[in-house]
Design goal:
Elements lengths: L9 H10 L4 E3 L6 H9 L8 E6 L12 H9 L4 E6 L2 E6 L4 H11 L5 H15 L8 H4 L2 H6 L2 H19 L11 H18 L5 H27 L2 H22 L4 H6 L7 H27 L11 H4 L2 H13 L3
Parallel strand pairs: 1-2, 2-3
Antiparallel strand pairs: 3-4
Helix pairs in contact: 4-5, 9-10, 9-11, 10-13, 11-13, 11-15
Length: 332
């Protein structure tokens, strides 16, 4: 099984174990789980390319940021695409079709249909978008025919062997062509979700500026890893991933709806709101500036330099618990 950091979340652990042996996992606490499983079984491809996980809303309690569960499932899954419903929150990540997976999930979530309809439609649309594997089941069908002549015992043995081969194939990780590492990609996707939230705040120049800053940051992150993939050695890409996996996750937590966005829309409910807002905006600008500097270093074939610290954000008591959870999930 691919590497999965310690999550200390039993829902995640059970789900990862579930999709390691099958493509559909519905948590026992989910109402109507049997009907959901039956409906999904009719549309989820049997080639092991898509995993669907359905969890109760309780699974997201105390998670450090919105896409944390999706990130953990993607890291622990061998399937190329992971679709997850946490309560009524529908998310998806895919190495096959990239950002389109999350877009499809978001569109179906806002459709107003039942969760079952949303999941079925999301699976159907992503399956249609994803490239199909050539050959299908024809590779394993051929050997069965001559074995029938040998007798029932040989046929049974062949069927068992075919099942094992198919299962191993389903569990073989698919190599992504996306130059942005999966964990970083999830953070970029979340940034783009938040950008839309800030852009939708009426009459707030700060929210509009933050939306523009988030959009620029997401673009810069993609440019950095694209250029690293094309021009730099693997060691530089690994360094950048280690640096920005932490910083982007912290920044996403500060930009999320329950912190900066809430500060901008309900400053009357916070102590020192102006100071808090300034801290997050400064952190956003600093990280974006450092990434642009890193891009310039890549273009000049120089080693990457990292000088930005987000300690001011972690000093806030509201974000301190999140930092502890982050370190636990990272095994630090």
């Amino acid at each position: 099984m691919p590497y999965l950091s310690s999550s200390n979340n039993p829902w995640i652990e059970d789900a990862v174990e579930g999709i390691s042996v099958q493509n559909i996992y519905v948590d026992p606490d989910v109402s109507g789980g049997a009907a959901l499983t039956d409906a999904l079984a009719s549309v989820v491809p049997g080639d092991g390319s898509i995993a669907v996980v359905v969890l109760s809303a309780n699974a997201a309690t105390d998670t450090p940021y919105n896409t944390y569960i999706l990130e953990q499932l993607t890291a622990g899954a061998s399937q190329q695409t992971v679709i997850v419903a946490i309560g009524d929150d529908l998310q998806a990540a895919s190495a096959a079709i990239g950002d389109d997976a999350l877009r499809i999930a978001n569109e179906n979530e806002s459709s107003g249909g039942s969760l079952q309809d949303q999941l079925v439609e999301t699976v159907t649309e992503i399956s249609a978008e994803a490239p199909t594997s050539p050959g299908g089941d024809s590779e394993v069908a051929g050997p069965v025919i001559p074995l029938v002549i040998g007798g029932v015992v040989l046929v049974a043995a062949a069927v068992t062997a075919i099942g094992l081969i198919a299962r191993r194939r389903r569990r073989t990780p698919v190599v992504s062509t996306d130059p942005v590492p999966p964990g970083i990609r999830l953070r970029v996707n979340r940034l783009r979700e938040l950008r839309a939230d800030y852009a939708a705040v009426p009459g707030s120049p700060v929210a509009a500026e933050t939306a523009a800053g988030i959009d620029a940051l997401a673009s810069h992150v993609e440019q950095l890893f694209t250029r690293l993939d094309a021009r730099a050695g693997e060691d530089q890409s690994v360094l950048a991933e280690a640096e920005y996996s932490d910083k982007l996750a912290r920044l996403v937590a500060a930009l999320d709806r329950d912190y900066l966005l809430d500060l901008l829309t309900r400053p009357d409910l916070w102590d020192a709101p102006d100071e808090r807002i300034a801290e997050v905006r400064e952190a956003l600008s600093a990280v974006s500036t450092q990434i642009v500097d890193n891009i310039k270093q890549v273009n000049a074939r120089k080693g990457l330099l990292f000088q930005v610290s987000l300690d001011s954000l972690i000093g806030r008591s509201e974000l301190r618990d999140w930092e502890r959870q982050f370190k636990q999930s990272s095994g630090e």
